């Protein structure tokens, strides 16, 4: 018998009523008397399953429905229809047994007490999650050392920089060793080296504790580094659910071939020229023909270097979204 | 140019309070309960004494505190605590980079808000009036002087709190000092009681300070406690205090900014 | 009970933290001294002109004032910091973090902030109450003292409920700071016995902002204006208020999570 999925979602749907607001004195005075609203469908019929230990990325532009889905899974928001199950529990009921085993981290925000040092907040978290003392001290000290926090945990949280705050926040979120971790844009606003450190930390946590991780981001780098599986969401719909490489294979409209050497004036016969500098050219060709074109180039011309690459994943994602817009 | 700045800032203040009108109403209600408390207490005292205390009849006491509520709405000014936050958050740098003295920024903003506050005050005044029904004699001079005096009172009080705020440039432990000032103002401005009800020496002390010109003077001018001559000299005294504080602000803030930029904002 | 042990754990951490800041202790001392001074000045002023205020003698008024200060200290140290944080959280979108914890949200938002030094007012107020009580020609002091403490405790609970209900208004519209301004303005009315106020205000101070219940009633219990058996009624009232508060809280929570029906 296969183990039960950590997270299971079926036809999840959520709509919001948003007030229509405009600026200026006249509009403000009018709004005094008559407020207008419009309906926004944030999530349309999402269906997916996460197995224990999976690290899954939820990719999409702002307003795509990533955060709304996450909120429905962590019990913060009630779905309008559909079914959600996390560790066998219904999140919207917020049973204590579930809440003790999940963790939530939101980028650019902290759940720790603003005026107290992180260490004090950790003590309060320990009481809250009823973490046994040896486990608590063990994990706390290890995490602090891994992230090199040392002194930072003794300063009031409001005195820390954003990067430092996210580090202490992440430690706080993992002290109770959650089995399911929800990360909402965790690397938002951080510099590249800090992003890498946090990703490494999350990855190590997943490896050691076997936790399921659901990560939303609009940074490709987060997803590339951490997630084997990716769900692309746009305007509330999931357009792709599978491996990252599969995403490329499915949606990439071309491959790029970069050649260096003695090249003729016109290369139209081989493919579309994307870039040309000196003796180096980048061509765009249909994925199925990439191999053949490369062979012809090598045969016909004097080449010193040739590479075949997939397009940057960003371009693929954009293609997914524009394709989705055309479809809807 | 400074005129246009004022207009723009005042408009900002007005828009802000229009948007948060419920919040402003809440706030105002909280502030305006204060005179009701004092009035209730001193009416009880006056009644126990047969209708008057220290030269104030029941009517005059009632009128005093009802007018108090408008004067209070008018003299609300930026608290000195704001500066600590502005210094720490770096907002001060924005203010300093403008071509006008930072004083004008808040002064104009608050001035714009007064329109909303006065409108919100009116229903409150009606309730108070019908509850207590004071009767006062108004003359054109009294009303005219009052209309001018409340704006001058606002100016004086705003300037004084602005000066208080400068303390933040020298130390962060300012809240105790400000609390002390609030206590002093309470007793010496006519805010707690008309100064006539205070012991003689307190009344004399208050005569030397600016506090009573932000509270008691406008009130007494309107309700007929002052003769015409006193009303006019009162206006002059208000202007005098504005002059004094203007000089003080130039001196003190000049040093404060020099210190701030020297230490490195 | 887990709620109690959780609250105690939180309290310990914050108290330990506050103890490190001696400067804040001094600051609070000064604030309390200034407030006490102006309060005593007001009372003295009144009694320079008259012997009783609406039937209240000087020691009786001191008891009211002292109770007001004690309650103010409890509110400032235990209730206000938490309600402020609740309103901030809702305004800034951080309330989600409360909901994601394995604890009842109402409990959590009510215990997670605590300011130790404001308890100074509890001591100051207690001294004022005792000095007023000492001047009273009253029998059965022990019973009355116990009744006073019980009534004061009920008063604290009712004030907490009112604060919580006010704070949940931020789930809907108003900015938090203004609510606090409003409250602090209204709270000042509790310095004097509620009976001196005009009827319309007395009503508000009894039912809307229960200052009458929280301050005047305990004071009257101590100064023998009310019989201690009133406590039974008080208990009933408090229980009802707690239940209603819980209902309002849960309704707002459901609305926040977009629960339908």
Helical proportion of chain C, percent range: over 70%
Residues in helix, % of chain B:
over 70%
Distance between the termini of chain C: 32 Å
Please tell me the overall pLDDT of chain C. Answer: 88
Q: pLDDT below 50 for ≥5 consecutive residues: which ranges of chain B? A: none
Number of domains of chain C: 1
Radius of gyration over C-alpha positions of chain C, nearest whole angstrom:
19 Å
Based on DSSP secondary structure assignment, what is the total number of beta strands of chain B? Answer: 2
Number of strands of chain C: 0
Rg of chain B: 19 Å
How many domain modules of chain B? 1
Assign an overall shape of chain C.
globular
What is the CA-CA span between the terminal residues of chain B?
28 Å
Q: What report would you give on this structure?
A:
The complex is a heterotrimer of chains A (328), B (265) and C (261). Chain A has 328 residues and is of the alpha/beta class. Chain A has helices spanning 25-33, 66-73, 96-99, 118-129, 133-146, 162-174, 192-209, 220-226, 244-251, 290-300, 313-327; strands spanning 7-20, 36-50, 55-59, 81-86, 102-106, 180-184, 212-217, 229-234, 237-243, 255-262, 272-277, 280-285, 302-309. Chain A is 36% helix and 30% strand. In chain A, 39% of the residues are buried. The mean pLDDT of chain A is 87. Chain B has 265 residues and is mostly helical. In chain B, helix 7 runs parallel beside helix 11 (228-263). The model of chain B has no long low-confidence stretch (mean pLDDT 87). Chain C is globular, with a radius of gyration of 19 Å. Chain C has helices at 2-19, 22-49, 58-92, 96-99, 105-111, 120-134, 141-168, 176-187, 199-208, 211-222, 230-256. Chain C has one domain (2-256). The chains are: A alpha/beta (328), B mainly alpha (265), C mainly alpha (261). At the B-C interface, helix 2, helix 6 and helix 8 of B face helix 2 and helix 8 of C.
């Amino acid at each position: 018998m296969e183990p039960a999925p950590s997270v299971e979602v079926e036809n999840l749907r959520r709509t919001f009523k948003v007030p229509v607001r405009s600026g200026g004195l006249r509009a403000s005075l009018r709004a005094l008397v008559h407020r207008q609203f419009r309906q926004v469908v944030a999530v349309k019929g999402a269906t997916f399953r996460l197995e224990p230990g999976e690290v899954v990325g939820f990719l999409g532009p702002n307003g795509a429905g990533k955060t709304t889905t996450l909120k429905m899974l962590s019990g913060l928001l009630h779905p309008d229809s559909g079914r959600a199950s996390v560790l066998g529990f219904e999140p919207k009921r917020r049973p204590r047994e579930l809440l003790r085993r999940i963790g939530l981290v939101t980028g650019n925000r902290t759940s720790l007490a603003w005026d107290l040092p992180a260490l004090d907040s950790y003590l309060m978290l320990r009481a809250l999650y009823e973490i046994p003392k040896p486990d608590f001290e063990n994990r706390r000290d290890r995490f602090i050392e891994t992230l090199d926090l040392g002194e930072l945990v003794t300063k009031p949280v409001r005195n820390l920089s954003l990067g430092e705050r996210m580090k202490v926040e992440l430690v706080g979120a993992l002290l109770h060793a959650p089995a399911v971790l929800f990360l909402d844009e965790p690397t938002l606003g951080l510099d590249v080296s800090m992003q890498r450190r946090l990703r490494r930390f999350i990855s190590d946590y997943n490896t050691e504790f076997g936790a399921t991780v659901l990560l939303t981001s609009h940074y490709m780098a987060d997803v590339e580094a951490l997630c084997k599986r990716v769900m692309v969401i746009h305007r509330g719909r999931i357009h792709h659910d599978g491996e990252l490489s599969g995403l490329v294979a499915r949606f990439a409209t071309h491959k790029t071939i970069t050649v260096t050497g003695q090249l003729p004036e016109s290369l139209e016969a081989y493919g579309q020229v994307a870039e040309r500098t000196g003796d180096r050219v980048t061509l765009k060709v249909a994925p199925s023909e990439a191999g053949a074109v490369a062979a012809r180039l090598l045969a016909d011309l004097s080449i010193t270097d040739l590479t075949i690459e997939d397009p940057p994943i960003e371009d693929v994602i954009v293609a997914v979204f524009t394709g989705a817009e055309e479809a809807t | 140019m400074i005129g246009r700045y004022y207009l723009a800032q005042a408009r900002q203040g007005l828009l802000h309070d229009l948007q948060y009108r419920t919040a402003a109403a809440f706030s105002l209600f909280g502030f305006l309960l204060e005179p009701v408390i004092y009035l209730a207490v001193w009416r009880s005292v006056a009644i126990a004494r047969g209708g008057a205390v220290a030269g104030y009849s029941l009517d005059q006491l009632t009128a005093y505190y009802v007018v108090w509520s408008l004067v209070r709405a008018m003299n609300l000014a930026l608290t000195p605590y704001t500066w600590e936050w502005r210094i720490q958050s770096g907002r001060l740098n924005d203010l300093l980079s403008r071509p006008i003295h930072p004083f004008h920024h808040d002064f104009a903003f608050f001035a714009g808000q007064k329109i909303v506050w006065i409108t919100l005050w009116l229903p409150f005044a009606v309730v108070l009036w019908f509850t207590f029904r004071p009767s006062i004699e108004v003359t054109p001079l009294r009303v005219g002087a009052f209309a001018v005096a409340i704006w001058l009172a606002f100016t004086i009080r705003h300037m004084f709190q602005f000066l208080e705020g400068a303390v933040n440039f020298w130390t962060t432990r300012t809240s105790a000092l400000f609390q002390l000032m609030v206590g002093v103002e309470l007793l010496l401005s006519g805010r707690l009681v008309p100064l006539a009800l205070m012991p003689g020496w307190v009344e004399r002390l208050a005569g030397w300070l600016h506090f009573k010109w932000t509270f008691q003077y406008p009130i007494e001018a309107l309700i007929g406690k002052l003769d015409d001559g006193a009303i006019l000299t009162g206006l002059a005294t208000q202007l005098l205090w504005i002059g004094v504080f203007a000089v003080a602000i130039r001196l003190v803030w000049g040093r404060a900014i020099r210190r701030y930029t020297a230490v490195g904002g | 009970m887990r709620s109690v042990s959780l609250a105690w754990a939180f309290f310990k951490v914050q108290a330990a933290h506050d103890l490190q800041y001696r400067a804040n202790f001094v600051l609070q001392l000064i604030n309390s001294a200034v407030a006490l001074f102006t309060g005593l000045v007001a009372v003295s002023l009144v009694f320079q002109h008259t012997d009783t205020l609406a039937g209240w003698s000087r020691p009786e008024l001191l008891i009211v004032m002292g109770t007001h200060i004690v309650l103010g200290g409890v509110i400032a140290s235990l209730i206000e910091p938490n309600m402020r944080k609740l309103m901030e959280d809702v305004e800034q979108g951080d309330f989600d973090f409360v909901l994601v914890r394995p604890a009842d949200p109402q409990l959590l938002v009510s215990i997670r902030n605590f300011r130790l030094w404001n308890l100074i007012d509890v001591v100051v107020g207690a001294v004022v109450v005792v000095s007023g009580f000492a001047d009273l020609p009253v029998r059965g002091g022990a019973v009355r003292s116990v009744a006073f403490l019980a009534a004061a405790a009920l008063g604290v609970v009712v004030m907490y409920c009112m604060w919580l209900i006010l704070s949940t208004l931020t789930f809907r519209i108003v900015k938090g700071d203004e609510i606090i301004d409003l409250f602090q303005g209204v709270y000042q009315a509790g310095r004097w016995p509620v009976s001196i106020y005009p009827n319309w205000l007395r009503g508000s101070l009894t039912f809307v902002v229960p200052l009458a219940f929280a301050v005047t009633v305990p004071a009257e219990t101590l100064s023998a204006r009310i019989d201690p058996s009133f406590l039974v009624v008080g208990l009933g009232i408090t229980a009802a208020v707690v239940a209603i508060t819980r209902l309002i809280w849960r309704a707002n929570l459901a609305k926040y999570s977009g629960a339908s029906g």
